[in-house]
Structure formats: structure tokens, C-alpha cells
Specification:
membrane, Nuclear Transport Factor 2, Chain: A, about 15% helix, transmembrane helix, single chain, primary methylamine oxidase activity, alpha+beta, transmembrane, 39 strands, Beta-galactosidase, Chain A, domain 5
């Protein structure tokens, strides 16, 4: 046998061995390699619409909606009313009153032109939306709150109606702000997402309504009509737990079309795709904490508190040993953003909503972009929130045994599944007169690359006139409204004092991780503004962009800085937190794991932020 023949036989044998190994190798291994490649590419994929919006006009829900708008304009009407199926009898009566009210309808015409408006919600009034006069009236009468949206001017109008007296108590307009959408628009968003050819192609099957989550959550993409808040958008989401991906279908409700779609990673999870709904004590919470104030007296502290429609747990009229301390404190929003690649393909021309959350997309640097939500926390019924009160407020002793806390748990009903969130509002009260405003994030969210920013609003009650100082070697009085990044190096970089008594005041101690709660610090921005009732004294609508990391939303209140020396001032404190899903380093994270007993157990790695206020005389 020649040398050449031996070499040929050897090569042939090697080839046959390789073929046998491939043939008998487990299919899962081959599939897993392919799936990893697919998943990696999917995580960065932005899908732009390839069809005209006319394809959606044949959808029955859209057809009916457009027909009703056409008939409304033909009849010289300007507000599309809610269907009776969304309203109880008194809400129907409130709607009739408002559709005849000149003040409520004031912004629905521009000269002779009629502007498209939709009534979005009419619900029993929540105490946090009422001014003092309305609170007195609504303790005796049945009052309802209503919201309409002007699609042309991007303005939300909120009204309070005394149904028994057949009277409109108040009308307020919020330019550049959007309400929660009606049930009808939620169904339209679902229908558009289900009929979108791009969605079907990406999923690989024809989805059903049961496959959708977060159909009423507002959402945007940067540099789009959504991000610029010109269009009303939501983002119905389709979750693929096996591939650890979620497909966000951004639906533009102004144009009634699919604006874009985006695959995003969920992070690894053992949480099953289906879990039973938790039993929320909704009626009890509404009756006892949403529709009235509650008084707490403990350890020298006197506190009035309530659950709001969208601003979480709020404390009001707080005093310590008879001296006023706080007029109001609450967390008005959680800005939630995620970073992904693929910005060059991004279309941000329309707004998006997912499960009541508005989804934003914002172009960044190096081909990256940010997308996410503004999360509202609130009452389980009749509120604009999507992260709902679980049980009711609780009073607990501090682990340090030097005070107590008032705390409220808010969560999506399907937490800790992916794209579900859980937050805790906590107010800590110490026996020496100190207090701390605390926000806790318990995951899990839609991915392992999240940036969370809770927007805290704190209105002190030291006097009707106060002064604010920052320390940089010496105390410097702030003359006008302003903001700055909070320094990480100083224990007490700020103080707020009564203008009438310089000894009556509080030092502000930012969280740098010193409070023994495993926090990684606040990394916060501080704003000081002059008090205005319309700037958060009552329930706020969504404040600012979830995903523009250069702004926190409060900037709109200081565009034209006003004098704050010897004025009633409000502090806004906005921490910035990054979550972490790395094994052994988890932070702002939750997962369902198999425990030692062989059963599923929820594991939480919370992140805790917020400043502490210390009386001047206690330092």
C-alpha cells in the first residue's frame, strides 16, 4: 500500500468519525447553539413598520372608533364620550354634566375648527386629587374625577364633579401631559398589535389577546413623536420566557398604527410563564386609605397619610412634639429606562404604551439608545397607576429600635415575573425628631440593564417662608430656583431653615450607603422650587421623560427661575440606581428559584435610596 493511499484512507476515516459524532450528538446541543445566536441577534433588533397605516383601518375596533369620531365631528361635538359599559350610573351622570360645561370644553375648539378629544376616565374621586374646598364637599357628596385628552394639543384636562349637586367643582389642564387611556383605546391598541404583520413575523405565529401584557402602558422611543410627547403611544408586550426575550409593539394611538417593535432581553428566570393572580384587598384599601385620610400618632409624631391615585403613599401635615415638620412628602414617579444597541434603526416618531406604561425610546451615543417607562404607584382601583397598592399601609418598628416606619408595598399583580415591578414607599421617623424619605425597588423589571430614578417631592412645613443653603466650605444661600448633582463626599451638604428662626430647620444627609441597608448610594440630583399647588401638591401626571438621562422632569419647573429666598419652597430629590443581575452581586433584582425543599421560592435583592433629615440642634 502506497503512502498516498494510506493518507487518503486516514482522511476518509476522520471525516466518517466527524459525521458520526454530528449525527448522534444530542439535538438540544445543536439547537442551543442556534438559539444562542438567534437570541443574541434578537436582543438588539429594532423592527420598523413596512406597511401603511391604512391596513389597520379595516380592524373592527378601529373602524368603529373612526366612525364614532366622524359622527362626533359631523354633529359639531368635540369630545368622544366613554361608552356606558365603562361607567357606573353616577359616572354616566358626571359625563353628561361635563359635556355641557363650557370651562371643561374650553380647549376643544380652535376658532371654527373642532379638535379631537377623547374622554379617558371617569371614576370616584380620590382624596389626593381634591383641593381643600372640594375635600369638604366630597366628604358629604358623591364626587367623580374625569380626564379627557386633546389629541391635537397634547393636553390632559382633569375635572372634579359633584354629581349630587350637578356641579363642576374644578377644571385643570396639563399641557404636554397624557392620562391613562380608556378601556376602548386599550382594546384598540391590542387589536393593532395583534394584526401587525411585523409582530406576527417576529413571533413566528399569530398571537392571541391572551399573549399580550401591558397593553395600556405608555411608552416612547427617543427623538420620536412618542419621546417628544406629541403622540399618544402605548406598548403591548409579548413575552417569550424560553428565549428570555420580550417583543414590545409600540402602538401610536394618535395615528392608529404600529410605530415600531423592539426585542428586549428579560434576564434569566425560573419564574413560570403563568402564575395565579394575587388576591388584593382592593375594596378595603380604597375605603380606608384612598377615599379618606388616616391619622397616626406615635412617639411624639403626628402624621396624616393616604394612598394617592398615582403618587404612591403620601404623608401630610406631619408634626413632632407639636412643631410642624412636613406639609407633604411622596414619590411622584419612578423613571425606568433600559439601554440597548441599534439606535441607527430607531424610529421614535410616535408614543408607545405597555400595560398602562408609556414607553419611550431615546437615542444615545455609540449606537445605543434608551427605552422604558414612567411607573406610577397608587390605589388599586380608580387610579392612573399600574403598580398597585398591595394590602394597606403598615407601621413597623425600625431595626435600630430608635423609631418606626410607615410603609406601603406596591406591585404588579404578576410580580416577580419579567416585566413586572415592585416598589416600597417608606417613611422612617426617629425618636430624636429626624426622619427619612425612602424608596425601595424590589425588581424585577424587563431586563438586567436598567436605570431607575424615583422622583421624591418633599414640602417642609418649617414656616410659610423658608431658606435653603448648600455647603462648600461655607453655607451659601440659594437665591433662585435651581438644581445640582448631590456631592458624594459630604455628610450634610444642605440645610433648610425657617426664615423667621434660623435655629428651626433640618440638615439633609444624602444616602452614600451608610444606613446599613446594603444600598450602593443615591447618586442623586436635587431641585429646589417655589411652592405652587399645580406642581405636585395634588396628584401629578407623568413628570418628564423616563429615558432622557440628562433631565429628571423637574426641570420644567425651573426654566424661568423664580426667587426662593424667604419663600415657601419644595425639595425634589431624584436618586439614580443601576440594577445588577450578576450572580452574587444582585441589586434591584428578584427571581423565582428552586429552594432546598424543592419548591419555588421568590428571592429579592432590594435597592434602597433616599435622604435623611436631621434637626439642626441634634447635630
Amino acid at each position: 500500500m502506497t503512502k498516498e493511499i494510506k493518507i487518503s484512507i486516514f482522511i476518509l476515516m476522520i471525516g466518517m468519525v466527524a459525521l458520526v459524532i454530528y449525527w448522534f450528538s444530542p439535538q438540544e446541543i445543536q439547537n442551543s447553539k442556534v438559539e444562542k445566536r438567534v437570541t443574541a441577534s434578537v436582543e438588539e433588533k429594532v423592527i420598523l413598520p413596512h406597511y401603511e397605516k391604512s391596513i389597520y383601518q379595516a380592524i373592527p375596533e378601529v373602524q368603529s372608533y373612526l366612525s364614532d369620531i366622524k359622527a362626533m365631528i359631523k354633529n359639531r361635538q368635540t369630545v368622544l364620550p366613554l361608552q356606558n359599559s365603562e361607567l357606573d350610573n353616577q359616572a354616566q351622570e358626571a359625563q353628561k354634566i361635563l359635556l355641557q360645561d363650557i370651562n371643561f370644553l374650553q380647549d376643544t375648539r380652535e376658532g371654527d375648527k373642532l379638535l379631537h378629544n377623547d374622554m379617558m376616565r371617569i371614576l370616584p374621586a380620590i382624596v389626593s386629587t381634591l383641593n381643600k374646598e372640594a375635600q369638604k364637599i366630597c366628604q358629604q357628596h358623591h364626587c367623580y374625577q374625569a380626564e379627557k385628552y386633546n389629541f391635537v394639543t397634547n393636553t390632559t384636562t382633569r375635572a372634579i364633579v359633584d354629581v349630587e349637586a350637578q356641579k363642576v367643582l374644578s377644571v385643570e389642564r396639563y399641557t404636554g401631559m397624557q392620562p391613562d387611556i380608556s378601556l376602548r383605546l386599550t382594546h384598540i391598541a391590542q387589536a393593532i398589535a395583534l394584526h401587525a404583520p411585523e409582530v406576527k413575523q417576529e413571533l413566528g405565529f399569530t398571537p392571541l389577546k391572551k399573549d399580550i401584557t401591558m397593553a395600556n402602558v405608555r411608552g416612547t422611543m427617543k427623538e420620536s413623536p412618542c419621546e417628544n410627547t406629541e403622540h399618544l403611544c402605548v406598548a403591548p408586550t409579548f413575552t417569550d420566557h424560553k428565549r428570555e426575550q420580550a417583543l414590545w409593539a409600540v402602538v401610536d394611538l394618535t395615528e392608529l398604527k404600529l410605530a415600531a417593535a423592539k426585542w428586549a432581553g428579560l434576564g434569566k428566570t425560573t419564574t413560570p410563564a403563568c402564575i395565579s393572580e394575587r388576591s388584593l384587598q382592593n375594596r378595603y384599601i380604597m375605603k380606608n386609605f384612598c377615599q379618606k385620610d388616616t391619622l397616626l400618632e406615635k412617639n411624639g409624631w403626628k402624621i396624616t397619610y393616604r394612598l394617592t391615585g398615582s403618587d404612591g403613599l403620601e404623608i401630610r401635615n406631619v408634626s413632632f412634639k407639636g412643631l410642624p415638620v412636613i406639609s407633604s412628602a411622596k414619590i411622584v414617579d419612578w423613571h425606568v429606562s433600559y439601554q440597548e444597541k441599534g439606535a441607527e434603526e430607531l424610529d421614535t416618531s410616535t408614543e408607545t404604551y405597555i400595560e398602562g406604561r408609556r414607553v419611550e425610546f431615546i437615542r444615545g451615543e455609540d449606537g445605543n439608545y434608551l427605552f422604558g417607562y414612567n411607573d406610577a404607584m397608587g390605589c388599586p382601583l380608580f387610579s392612573t397607576s399600574v403598580v398597585l397598592a398591595f394590602n394597606g399601609p403598615q407601621v413597623k418598628e425600625l431595626k435600630s429600635n430608635d423609631g418606626f416606619m410607615l410603609t406601603q408595598d406596591f406591585r404588579n399583580p404578576k410580580w416577580p415575573m419579567a416585566c413586572n415591578y415592585r416598589y416600597e414607599n417608606r417613611f422612617e421617623f426617629y425618636n430624636d425628631g429626624s426622619f427619612r424619605v425612602v424608596g425601595v425597588n424590589k425588581g424585577r423589571g424587563c431586563g438586567d440593564n436598567a436605570i431607575y430614578r424615583p422622583v421624591m417631592r418633599i414640602d417642609m412645613a418649617l414656616n410659610e417662608k423658608e431658606n435653603f443653603y448648600s455647603y462648600d466650605g461655607r453655607w451659601k444661600l440659594w437665591q433662585k430656583e435651581n438644581s445640582e448633582q448631590v456631592a458624594d463626599s459630604r455628610q450634610y451638604p444642605y440645610k433648610i431653615v425657617s426664615s423667621a428662626n434660623g435655629k428651626n430647620g433640618y440638615y439633609i444627609e444624602p444616602n452614600h450607603g451608610q444606613f446599613k441597608d446594603n444600598s450602593r448610594g443615591d447618586h442623586a440630583t436635587l431641585f429646589v422650587t417655589k411652592f405652587k399647588e399645580s406642581e405636585g401638591d395634588k396628584d401629578l401626571l407623568t413628570l418628564g421623560s423616563c429615558c432622557n438621562l440628562k433631565e429628571d422632569g423637574v426641570e420644567r419647573y425651573i426654566e424661568k427661575p423664580e426667587n426662593i429666598k424667604q419663600e415657601n419652597i419644595v425639595l425634589w430629590y431624584v436618586p439614580r440606581i443601576r440594577n445588577d443581575a450578576r450572580t452574587g452581586h444582585e441589586y434591584c433584582w428578584a427571581d423565582t428559584l428552586i429552594g432546598q425543599d424543592g419548591n419555588l421560592q421568590v428571592k429579592v435583592w432590594p435597592c434602597t435610596v433616599g435622604p435623611k433629615f436631621i434637626p439642626l440642634q441634634k447635630r
